[in-house]
């Protein structure tokens, strides 16, 4: 019997892929409408994405098969959804990020900031969080975590190995890195102090206590890196894929939205939320792993300089190994800064951007997009040489000249570009288009009309909680891909601004802090050892609550004037059958 269960478990993915479509077949058979057929496809893809019985990108191809065969859309129409402007923005942004990684520019930035901030416990955690969050705004959070964690553990190794046995025996250890004891241990000490002749701790007990403190600090530093990688990604449109899913879904479902979600508008909304969440996370991790003695955490008391000097030396040595900044790093830095400036000034909204001035259509709107800018800079990187142009001889062959490689080569792109994300984005856009064409969006919106009596602020808060729980066990891209079209339909049905519910959903999908499998940065931190699932769950649970509260604050404060969330927009009203003008007053008064 045990062998039978083991066999079923071993072949579980094959069984899921085979039986799941059959199990769901009664839906399109008993209800032979386009809406039911589209719902069948969406439910099937959602379950396959949740179980990961098929690779996520392979599941994303199902609309190409299902929609034409079910009479929802033609194959050519479905295929057009797989390479839209949002996909181009992702590809261009990733190419620039790969160039930054190739020339170790991200590592130089990280080490330089750490040298400035210092290595005292609280400041060390803050330094790693700031650097990781900043890098994650521009490059993959997985790559950022994979780079920062080895640096963090190298610093910790120096901090922990410096005290000699003689120092431990004599009680001379660094209070700056001595973590506070747990409450139970404190109570035990108080009992001991009440005795007439308290026993002094033996050297072995002191060393055991010190090892526990070092382990807790190591856990805190590992978690601060992986958490800040996820937090930093929400600040920019290209920082994490769910942000791009939002932009693509808004442009697909509401084609006349006037480019309401672009790089500048997203940054203005998400960057303050990221800073608040990052600082609150720092305070929470410091309390959880360092204790409440902030004077000791900041190293303000008496301390030995040996450990601090050793840890600082590790960072300085790593920085020195990078050598002086070369031409390639300078060129990549210039092009990267140019990219960010062009993104911000293309169509900022509060002044006329260069896109409106130089490349406008008959209505004065910019014909270029953020994707245009990203691809332009990426193409330039394929052209600019990595060394100052000159005649250099090929190594080992003095008589033959060789040109230096470009800042970015196709071999690097071919090896490191996550093409599966491009396909996954396209699958989400195909689902949204299929829902609209089949009438499923309208049907779903009609069914959600009773929610009109619920205050919008309560709806947004519930959505944040739901997505924060759902994203712990499902890909954040799949989560936003599934929920955003539903929320768009709901917003039209109850006449509230679509972004009022879609923005919280997108931000909450990045709140995957509790489980190692929730996101790649968590898995990388867990693989370094020293962490248990309970450690991550205990720290992540509170961060999820903090994240939901910060998102609720953002959506009910500075985002309202930015996106005009107090009224139902005309570009969303054009897709509905009824008018929402009557409900605008209700929306205004219900929203904080």
Automatic annotation (TrEMBL):
Annotated membrane topology: Multi-pass membrane protein
Subcellular locations according to the entry: Membrane
Membrane-traversing stretches: 12-31, 43-67, 87-106, 113-139, 263-285, 327-346, 454-470, 482-501, 507-529, 541-560
Domain of life: Eukaryota
Location (main, coarse): membrane
Keywords: Ion transport, Membrane, Sodium, Sodium transport, Transmembrane, Transmembrane helix, Transport
Name of the molecule in the record: Solute carrier family 13 (Sodium-dependent dicarboxylate transporter), member 2
Organism: Bos taurus
Lineage start: Eukaryota, Metazoa, Chordata, Craniata, Vertebrata
């Amino acid at each position: 019997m045990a062998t039978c269960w083991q066999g079923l478990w071993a072949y579980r993915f094959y069984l899921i892929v085979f039986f799941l479509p059959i199990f769901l077949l009664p839906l399109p058979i008993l209800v032979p409408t386009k809406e039911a057929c589209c719902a069948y496809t969406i439910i099937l893809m959602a379950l396959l994405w949740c179980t990961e019985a098929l690779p996520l990108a392979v599941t994303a191809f199902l609309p190409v098969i299902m929609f034409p065969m079910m009479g929802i859309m033609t194959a050519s129409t479905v295929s057009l959804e797989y390479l839209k402007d949002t996909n181009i923005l992702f590809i261009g942004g990733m190419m620039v990020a790969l160039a930054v990684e190739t020339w170790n520019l991200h590592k130089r930035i990280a080490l330089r900031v750490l040298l400035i901030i210092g290595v005292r416990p609280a400041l060390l955690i803050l330094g790693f969080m700031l650097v990781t969050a900043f890098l994650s705004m521009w490059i993959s959070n997985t790559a950022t975590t994979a780079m920062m964690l080895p640096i963090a553990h190298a610093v910790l190794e120096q901090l922990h190995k410096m005290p000699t046995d003689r120092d431990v025996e004599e009680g001379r250890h660094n209070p700056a890195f001595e973590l506070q004891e747990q409450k139970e241990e404190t109570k035990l000490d108080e009992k001991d102090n009440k005795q007439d002749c308290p026993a002094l701790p033996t050297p072995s007990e002191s060393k055991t206590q010190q090892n526990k403190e070092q382990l807790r600090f190591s856990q805190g530093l590992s978690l601060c890196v992986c958490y800040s990688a996820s937090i930093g990604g929400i600040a920019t449109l290209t920082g994490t894929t769910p942000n791009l899913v939002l932009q693509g879904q808004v442009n697909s479902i509401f084609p006349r939205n006037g480019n309401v979600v672009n790089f500048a508008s997203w940054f203005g909304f998400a960057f303050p939320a990221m800073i608040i969440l990052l600082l609150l996370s720092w305070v929470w991790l410091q309390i959880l792993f360092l204790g409440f003695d902030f004077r000791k955490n900041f190293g303000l008391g008496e301390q030995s300089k040996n450990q601090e000097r050793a840890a600082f030396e590790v960072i300085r040595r790593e920085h020195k190994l990078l050598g002086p900044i070369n031409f390639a790093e300078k060129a990549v830095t210039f092009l990267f800064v140019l990219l960010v400036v062009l993104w911000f000034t293309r169509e900022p909204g509060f002044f006329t951007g260069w896109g409106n001035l130089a490349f406008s259509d008959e209505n004065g709107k910019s014909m270029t997009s953020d994707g245009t800018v990203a691809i332009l800079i990426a193409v330039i990187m394929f052209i600019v040489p990595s060394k100052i142009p000159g005649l250099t001889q090929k190594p080992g062959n003095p008589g033959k000249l060789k040109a230096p490689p470009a800042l970015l080569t196709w071999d690097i792109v071919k090896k490191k570009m996550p093409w599966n994300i491009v396909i996954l984005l396209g699958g989400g856009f195909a689902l949204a288009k299929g829902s609209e064409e089949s009438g499923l969006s309208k049907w779903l919106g009609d069914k959600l009309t009773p929610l009109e009596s619920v205050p919008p602020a309560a709806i947004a808060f519930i959505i944040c909680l739901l997505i924060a729980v759902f994203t712990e066990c499902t890909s954040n891209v799949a989560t936003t891909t599934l929920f955003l079209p539903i929320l768009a339909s709901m917003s039209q049905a109850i006449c509230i601004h679509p972004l009022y519910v879609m923005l919280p959903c997108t931000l909450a999908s990045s709140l995957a802090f509790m489980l190692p499998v929730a996101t790649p940065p968590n898995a990388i931190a867990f693989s370094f050892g020293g962490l248990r699932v309970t450690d991550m769950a205990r720290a992540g649970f509170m961060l999820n609550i903090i994240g939901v509260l910060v998102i609720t604050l953002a959506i009910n404060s500075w985002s309202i004037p930015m996106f005009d969330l107090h009224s139902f927009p005309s570009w969303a009203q054009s897709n509905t059958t009824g008018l929402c003008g009557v409900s605008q007053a209700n929306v205004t008064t219900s929203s904080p």
